[in-house]
Amino acid sequence: MEVKVLLVLLSLAACTYAEASADPFFLNLFKRCDCRNYYTKKCVAEKEQQCQTTYRDECQTHYKEECSYEKKQHCETSYKKECSYEKKQVCETTYTEECKPSYNYEKKCKKIPHESCKYINVPKCHDVPQQHCSEYTVPKCHKVPVQSCKKVPEKKCHYVHYYVPKKESHRECQKEHKYYVTEYKTEYEEQCQTFEVPKCQTKYKEECTYEEKQHCETSYKEECSYEKKQECQTTYTEECKPSYNYEKKCKKIPHQSCHYVDVPKCHKVPQQHCSSYTVPKCHKVPEQYCTKEYKKKCHKVPYQVPVKKEKYQCVWPEYRHHHDDNKC
Length: 328
Description:
Oligomer: single chain
Order of helices and strands: HHEEEE
Radius of gyration: 73 Å
Strand content: over 45%
């Protein structure tokens, strides 16, 4: 179905190719060259109305309201309550009952009054008048006559004949000129090269060295020296004397005896004992083992092939059929 529609369109386009008023869309399906519009001057006769205007004065009186503003004052009186306080004495009477025994074994009671007074603050208020005034403006207007005049036009006309240049559109198309050129087409040829690639593997071997270290321990030995120190001892002897009432009166008399003794004075002296031992220190040393492998690397090399190609050149016509009008 689509093929049939395309064939119908192509046949219609071929039929309309020869006609001067052909649709540009169908012409462009077959034409390689361009068409263009060009314009020429054409003189067209026209007439123009020329008018002359004169003016006369027409006046009218109207009234304009002019206003001036005068200031007025508006006052209002308000009252504010003001208070002062004065001292006033307030007294209160209380009663206590006092009873006395009578001869007939009854109580005789009477109420005794006690008055207590104190001063309190009593407010004394009065209204004080306060006046508040504000200014406002009042318009005072009157009408003033104003005369306004305007120019009234009077028109007189006549016709003038002349030529006006206008653009006229024309269409011209290029003509097709066929020629041949030699062009070069790039084609590719595959070229390969074999090269050697080393394949290596790294292995690690453990190597050890021995370093000497020292281990030390500290012990303490007690050393003593002797110094002389005086030690004293007090003994008492009792001495008695006869008294007047045939009693003994005794008292203790102290006797001190001293001698020197050796006192030991000791302290700890540190002594260090060290011994040597060896410690292994190991690290891995890399060793590389390589084998040979061969790889092939290919790439495409371009080369040029000459090709004869048909080309078209479009040429504009040397002479135009339409020219400018010289009447205007």
